[in-house]
Amino acid sequence: MEFIKVTKAYQKHIALIQLNRPKELNALNIQLMEEISESLKELDKDDEVRVVVITGNERAFAAGADIKQMAGKQTIDMWKEDRFTTWDQINKTKKPIIAAVSGFALGGGCELAMTCDMIVASETAQFGQPEIKIGVMPGAGGTQRLTKAIGKVKSMELVLTGKFINAEEALHYGLINKIVPVELYMEEALKLAKEIASMSPLAVQMAKESVKRSFEVPLDEGLQFERKNFYMLFSSEDQKEGMNAFVEKRRADFKGK
Ligand code: CAA
Fold first, then answer.
1. Nearest residue (CA) to ligand 1, atom 35
2. Which mutation among 24, 132, 145, 161 tests ligand 1's pocket best, with the greatest number of atoms within 8 A of CB?
3. 111 catalytic, yes or no?
4. Is 68 near ligand 1, meaning CB less than 6 Å away?
5. Structural domains in the chain?
6. 8 Å CB contact between 189 and 55
7. Catalytic pick from 64, 99, 100, 111?
8. CA 174 from chain center: how many Å?
9. Is residue 15 a contact partner of residue 190, using CB atoms and an 8 Å limit?
């Protein structure tokens, strides 16, 4: 991997992907996105991994797609590159992904954070979709995921003016889970990851799948989907372990079986 660092066993059951183009503020070139997508595919298959944390560095989570790489492109070049296949693959990840964001999360950087399942931010985090300022618009889900997260009017404002919002505003509008001082954002993301990693990984993945489904389908269809996943978990050892542990007043030890 050239543009990311992957640590499979960063902590027990927790993998870490760190974007590693610091001089370019982690601008997302095509190869970097391929590396994230490939790594997540691998981590998704690894039973030892239950939660993935994606981060950048203190100054930047990611300042967007690599503008220098795109500047001279024509429509057909963009079409041939098929750059959003990697994004679709990331979106298919079954395991929960937590974005630990500090500094800039702009354009594709904001879209990458929103493709994750939860966002823990440092108090220096800034979110925005500034593509309008460079003559285009969000292309990796910004108009859709931002609108679903923060609603139409605020999303319109950000997408049409390109202005950034700080962590306080992002929390107020429901874009992020939590703000912490900059020296604690990784620790806080890992704390959340650890809590989720202590649950049944099967239940976690099916619950994630069900929550995501609510964005795709009408309520009735979503309820049916949820019910099937709920029933399915009753064929897992983890369901027996979880419920027996409750009855026996002890801590459950989930094995992902
Ligand atoms: N692509 C390529 N390079 C980038 C970049 C990007 N998105 N963002 C920053 N960089 C590079 C800069 O060119 C600069 O490189 P050089 O030192 O070689 O000149 C380096 O990173 C540091 O950046 P700045 O000097 O600009 O740092 P700053 O602190 O003055 O400003 C910033 C920081 C406000 C984030 C500014 O860099 C900026 O506005 N970046 C672009 C943000 C943007 O427009 N993102 C959207 C991209 S399009 C997109 O994402 C499409 C999509 O939906 C998929």
1. 63
2. 24
3. yes
4. yes
5. 4-197 (3.90.226.10), 201-247 (1.10.12.10)
6. yes
7. 111
8. 15
9. no
Alpha-carbon distance of 110 to 114, in angstroms, equals 6
Contact 198, 254 (CB under 8 A): yes
Q: Does any ligand 1 atom lie closer than 6 A to the CB of residue 142? A: yes
DSSP β-bridge partners for residue 127: 105, 165
Tens digit of each residue's pLDDT, the chain (257 residues): 999 999 999 999 999 999 999 999 999 999 999 999 999 999 999 999 999 999 999 999 999 999 999 999 999 999 999 999 999 999 999 999 999 999 999 999 999 999 999 999 999 999 999 999 999 999 999 999 999 999 999 999 999 999 999 999 999 999 999 999 999 999 999 999 999 999 999 999 999 999 999 999 999 999 999 999 999 999 999 999 999 999 999 999 999 99
The answer to whether the CB of 59 is under 6 A from ligand 1 is no
Q: Which residue's CA is the nearest one to ligand 1's atom 41?
A: 63
> In this structure, which long-range contacts are made by residues 45-50, counting pairs with CB atoms below 8 Å and at least 24 apart in sequence?
46/8, 46/15, 47/256, 48/8, 48/9, 48/13, 49/8, 49/9, 49/13, 49/14, 49/15, 49/95, 50/13, 50/14, 50/95, 50/196, 50/197, 50/201, 50/204, 50/256
Give the pTM: 0.97
The answer to whether 131 is a known catalytic residue is: yes
Q: Are 177 and 125 in contact (CB under 8 A)?
A: no
Other Cβ atoms closer than 10 A to 103: 23
How far apart CA 164 and CA 53 sit, in angstroms, is: 24
Instruction: Find the 57 Cα to ligand 1 centroid distance in Å.
Output: 15
